[in-house]
Amino acid sequence: MPSQRLGFGKDGSVWATRQGSALKVHERLATYTRERDVYWRISDLGIRDVAAHAVPRLIDWDDQLGILEISIVEPPFVLDFASAQLDHPHDFPDDIMQSWLAERLELFGPLWPKTAAVLRVLERHGIFMLDVHPGNIRS
């Protein structure tokens, strides 16, 4: 049973459990499935961290309820793969991607090189993140 809300956003809410894990309750099946599949990839590859950023470990999941149970990680970390795609990058026009990059540079400031390193490592594993902000990648 959840005990404390750790966070919430456009894809759902995250709750701490009394057992020390987190439950991510998704609003939509599509984002749940996307995130579950990314965690399956991470688990299959044995990834525990990416460019010295901890990655939550998938503990359990419920396809009917759209809930993932994951470990809780401390900064530096990378999390929230609900908007990520596997095996191919998001298909946006160049001007949109340039605007996205300019926004990330502003958001992360001097931490952008570390963040970009995290994204490059994920991409080498076929994981392409879109929802990139300091709440999801914290150095």
Q: How would you briefly describe this protein structure?
A:
The protein is α+β, with helices and mostly antiparallel strands and 139 residues long.
Task: List descriptors.
about 140 residues, alpha+beta, Phosphorylase Kinase, domain 1, two-stranded antiparallel sheet
Structural overview:
This protein has helices at residues 29-45, 94-108, 112-124; strands at 2-9, 12-17, 21-26, 49-50, 53-54, 58-62, 67-71, 77-78, 85-86, 127-128, 137-138. The chain has a 5-stranded antiparallel β-sheet, covered by helices on one side. A two-stranded antiparallel ribbon has the order 4-5. The protein has a two-stranded antiparallel ribbon with strand order 8-11. The longest helix is centred in the first third of the chain and has 17 residues, at 29-45. The mean pLDDT is 94. It has a single domain, classed as Phosphorylase Kinase, domain 1 (2-Layer Sandwich), CATH 3.30.200.20. The protein is α+β, with helices and mostly antiparallel strands and 139 residues long. It contains 3 helices and 11 strands; from the N terminus they run E-E-E-H-E-E-E-E-E-E-H-H-E-E. The termini are far apart.
**What is the architecture at the second tier of CATH?**
2-Layer Sandwich
Please tell me what the overall shape is.
Answer: globular
Gyration radius, rounded = 15 Å
Instruction: Let me know the largest β-sheet.
Output: 5 strands, antiparallel
- pLDDT < 50 runs, ≥5 residues: none
* Strand count: 11
